[in-house]
Amino acid sequence: FVPDGLTPAEGNAYYRRFQASFVRQLSVRADAAQCRTAEDIRRAWAEGKTAAILTVENGAALGGDLDEIDRLARDGVGMLTLTWNYPNELGAPNGQAGGLTETGFAFLAEMEGLGMLADVSHLSDQGFWDVCRAARRPFLVSHSNARALWPHRRNLTDEMLRALGDRGCLVGANFYAGFLGPGATSQPADLLRHLRHMIQVAGLETVALGSDFDCIDTPLAWGDAGGMDQVVQALDQGGFSPREIDAICWENAWKFFQRTL
Prior knowledge:
The chain is mainly alpha-helical. The protein contains ten helices and eight strands. Strands 3-4-5 form a three-stranded parallel sheet. A three-stranded parallel sheet has the order 6-7-8. A two-stranded parallel ribbon has the order 1-2.
C-alpha cells in the first residue's frame, strides 16, 4: 500500500522500500514463495508453500512514469490498484468526478501488455467504466461490496457487477464494517448477504473473498485472518453448498489467475 499525498518521487521511493521489505521477508520464510504466474502458484502449492503475489495498492507508486511499469514487472508485481482514496496521475478515486486520465489509459495498456492485472477497487465510477471500455483482458475489483445493499461509494452497483460477470472478471468481497452495513462490527450475516447478492447479479464464478485485512480499522466478529474458518462455517450454516463455498473461498480466484497470470 502506497499512501496518498506523496509527491511522485516520494510515492516511487515508498514502493521501492516496500518491495525491498517483501524480498527480505521471503528470504527468511521457507514456507512461502513469490509467484508471478499461475504456474508459479501451482509449483508453490506442490512444494507445500504459500503462494505470495506481490501487489501494489495505489498507482501513485509509479509517479506518472510509464517506464516504472517495466520496473514493477521486473520486480514480479502481479497486480496494481490504480488509485486509492485521492486522485493520482492515473485517475480519480471513488466518490469523485472524473475517470482515467490520458496517462491512466496509457498505463492500463502497458500493464495489459506485460500481463499485470488492473485492480479497480477505489477507482471512481467513471473510471470503472473507462476501464471496462478500454481493457482487452479481464480485470478485477479486489475488495468491494454491493452498493444495492449498502450505498457506500466504494461499493459496486448492480450494473457494474453484471459487467464484471460478463467480462470474466473477479470481485472480492470486503470485510470492512463500513462497506457491509450500519453496524460498527463486521458480522458474518452481513458478509453473507453481500455475497448472495453479488452471486445473484454477477454469477457464482465471479465472486471471491477480498478481506482488506491490512486496512480494516473496525472490529470483526471473527477476529482476524486467523478466524477465517469461522467465515467458512458461516457460509455452511448460511445454506451455501460445498461447491459454492469452494468457489468463493479459493476456486474462483485460482481459475481467474489461471486465465490471466
